[in-house]
Amino acid sequence: MSTAGVISLERDTPELARTYERAGVLQFHHGKFLIGPLVLKSGDHVLDIGAGTGRLTEFVAGLVGPTGRVVGIDPLENRIAIARLRASQTLTFDVGRAEDLSRFGPAEFDAVYLNSVFHWIADKRQALLEIERVLKPGGRIGLNVQDPTKPHESRTLLRQAIEQAGFSERSSESTRVLGATDEELRALFAETGFSDYRSDLRSLVDLHGDVNSVLGWSEASAFGNFLGGFSQAERAAIDAAFAALVETKRTPEGLHLERYLRFAFARKPGSQATTSIS
């Protein structure tokens, strides 16, 4: 959620990384829906692109067991610093981007996944070409991504808050969804050599205790790009309007906000394809 469509990795801080680690259980649970269809088995080699602080990566390492190998990469050094606390003999982390996987050889991984990451990648085609290269024949890819046709409920409320605060002319660009539709994903996967593409849009639920939790998660998950183009005074007005709108979503369990993610899966063609994506 930035202005002018500019996403900066330099806005991340150690504090945001720590907030992400504390609140990241939300994204972790969504990621489990991504892992299941990849049908990971003992001994698999897996690459997690955009691993963040490594919570889901650690879970995957448990699935592939002591004979497997899991590598997590992320462009944000502060997040990788936390992730490395989870490292083991079969689980490693490093700073890296999806668009450049040159540190890995061809056909090195059985599966690659991107959990709530693909929408942040500027050159999606190059990223998929790199993933296709490092996958073994028959290797699987899974990702979940925001779909511009169905924005998260929090994003819809944020747009309303920006308009209520008097910045209607900036609301559209400030809440632009950086994701991909089913049609766009299908074309990208076909163009980069994948087969057996399928996707579905899922509705997930985020529960927060208060609006500060919502704002903290929004800031941390966007690594400092949340409302990045507004001044502190402007942000204060937007935050106040946003808080009032979010409170209308309160239930006995907490603040109930719908999140919508498109889950997409495909494989690299090849004779070694013995496991189907479920």
Explain what you see.
- It is built from 10 helices and 8 strands.
- By secondary structure, it is α/β, with parallel strands linked by helices.
- The chain has a domain at 9-151 and 176-206 and 260-267: Rossmann fold (3-Layer(aba) Sandwich).
- Strands 1, 2, 3, 4, 5, 6, 7 and 8 form an 8-stranded mixed beta sheet that branches.
- Helix 4 (77-83) links the parallel strand 2 (69-74) and strand 3 (91-95).
- The radius of gyration is 19 Å and the shape is globular.
- The two termini are 33 Å apart.
- Residues 1-5 have low confidence and may be disordered.
- It comes from Bradyrhizobium betae.
- InterPro entries: Methyltransf_11, SAM-dependent_MTases_sf.
- Residues 47-141 form the Methyltransferase type domain.
- This is Methyltransferase.
The percentage helix is: 25-40%
Distance between the termini: 33 Å
Structural class: alpha/beta
H/E topology pattern: HHEHEHEEHEHHHEHHEE
Topology:
Layout: H1 14-23, H2 25-35, E1 45-49, H3 55-64, E2 69-74, H4 77-83, E3 91-95, E4 109-115, H5 124-134, E5 135-145, H6 153-164, H7 168-174, H8 182-191, E6 195-208, H9 211-221, H10 232-247, E7 250-251, E8 254-267
Parallel strand pairs: 1-2, 1-4, 2-3, 4-5
Antiparallel strand pairs: 5-8, 6-8, 7-8
Kindly list the characteristics that best describe this protein.
about 280 residues; Methyltransferase; 8 strands; disordered N terminus; 8-stranded mixed β-sheet; about 25% strand; Rossmann fold; alpha/beta
Summarize the structure.
The protein is of the alpha/beta class and 278 residues long.
